[in-house]
Amino acid sequence: xxxxxxxxxxxxxxxxxxxxxxxxxxxxxxxxxxxxxxxxxxxxxxxxxxxxxxxxxxxxxxxxxxxxxxxxxxxxxxxxxx
Length: 82
What we know:
82 residues, 5-stranded mixed β-sheet, 0% helix, globular
């Protein structure tokens, strides 16, 4: 699955991932390949991603996530890699 994490300043991550875990106001969600289409508001917290190289964690501010056609796009107000 393709993933992009972006802030108003820059692209924090762009690439292929095995899964993504993120907190939304509807609850915590895990996103795998071919996830159903979804748009949700993201809570401030952590974005955990798993790639072939290993796991990465980003601390994020509020934003939105859109999942469509095996691609997830996360747009947040701010983000740092931990």
